[in-house]
UniProtKB/TrEMBL annotation:
Binding site for substrate: F151, L152, R153, E154, K203, F248, L249, R250, A251, G252, G256, K319
Listed name of the protein: UDP-glucose 6-dehydrogenase
Pfam annotation, one family: UDPG_MGDP_dh_C
Similarity section: Belongs to the UDP-glucose/GDP-mannose dehydrogenase family.
PANTHER family: UDP-GLUCOSE 6-DEHYDROGENASE TUAD, UDP-GLUCOSE 6-DEHYDROGENASE YWQF
Amino acid sequence: MNIVVVGTGYVGLVTGVALAHIGHRVTCVDVDEEKVKQMGRGISPIYEPGIETLMKENMEANRLFFTTDGARAYREADVIYIAVGTPENEDGSANLTYIYQAVKDIASSVTKDVIVVTKSTVPVGTNHEMQRMFQQLAPHVRIDVVSNPEFLREGSAIYDTFHGDRIVIGADDERAAAVVAHIHRPFGIPIFQTDIRSAEMIKYASNAFLATKISFINEIANICEKVGADIEQVAAGMGMDQRIGSSFLRAGIGYGGSCFPKDTKALAKIAANIDHDFELLKAVIEVNNKQQRKLIEKARERFGHIQGKKIAILGLSFKPNTDDMREAASLVIARELVAEQAIVVAYDPIAINKAKAVLPKEVIYASHVEEALKDADAAMILTEWDEFRQLDLSIYVKQMKTPIIFDGRNCYALEDVKKYAIEYYSIGRKP
Ligand code: UGA
């Protein structure tokens, strides 16, 4: 099977590499020449554990190729996966410019029948619109559109691709669905076949539900702090109920990344467009916005004002094992600290380069934890990197002016912290 993947962001690159790994011939297309050159040398433009090993292995086996020549790749393709971005418009809706551009490019190049698989997250109805455009722009060939939403997580994208819970295939045409199911069968993951609109909705509903779980547990955490309960205990006790499940009950400073913030807003907008006020989802978003500022509130309560205080920020990316800064809590927190004229020294194991482009210019960067903590009035932990979780707690006492920790990710057990002269504020637990 000759497969082409359009777009080499997280989803596109991981999809391309994984499909090559299970034996298909895959060509990844991107408009960015520099990026394509880099990938051609086996260098991944995204930080993702394990991806470069798989890239090199499959390039050497002549199964994985990278090109900017979309037209040629489309002409030779049996199946084309669209994995371009659907960023957020100002009004919260999904921007489909790149999707429709890909449709036009494909339509003007293909000379034989082809199946187009949409991996990008798109509002309900988009795949049908794409189908309509293909019929209009390329009436000489048969193009079947199939929805195949992606559920991988950044940082464990390779693992998730090979060990996912389900592969969703939404299609109007049985034959096209069968071809796509056949392509994915070697993954050995259950395949859920459905209609196109339901497949599109499964993606949004899944992300919105997970975001809801996070905002819910964060609100419970906020209440726990006030009533003297411990959120870690509460989440563990709740999670034992299989109807609830134990995952996505980690309280903290809210969700970030390129998916939950964007997809929750897009779904609220989809609902609004049909005059449905999705109140629950709007509350989930609002709770998350507030939660991202939780540590600032705690610091204000503790210090009165933060002006002139030296604050060490540990962790900048929106979660561990990625250098992705999109919608990271660190953006909100660093901006607010700088606005209040605190001295901000930040450290992250891998996201510093990306952070420099998006954080306020006043932020100072440290090259290791000790340097960041040196003489600090307080530390704020924003990302639960293993490096921080496994840190010898005496380092805080040795390095800081006053060992005060505001832990936004509950990295330490309360009984461990108690052994040191550390003032410790975390989420949903007594100080
Ligand atoms: C998320 C979904 O988990 C994937 O299934 C989906 O494919 C992806 O979005 C997407 O739509 O492309 P991702 O954004 O990579 O994946 O990261 P997650 O691991 O889900 O974490 C998202 C955010 O939620 C992070 O900021 C994380 O810190 C936060 N989170 C997660 C919590 O605060 N508590 C939790 O219990 C879990």
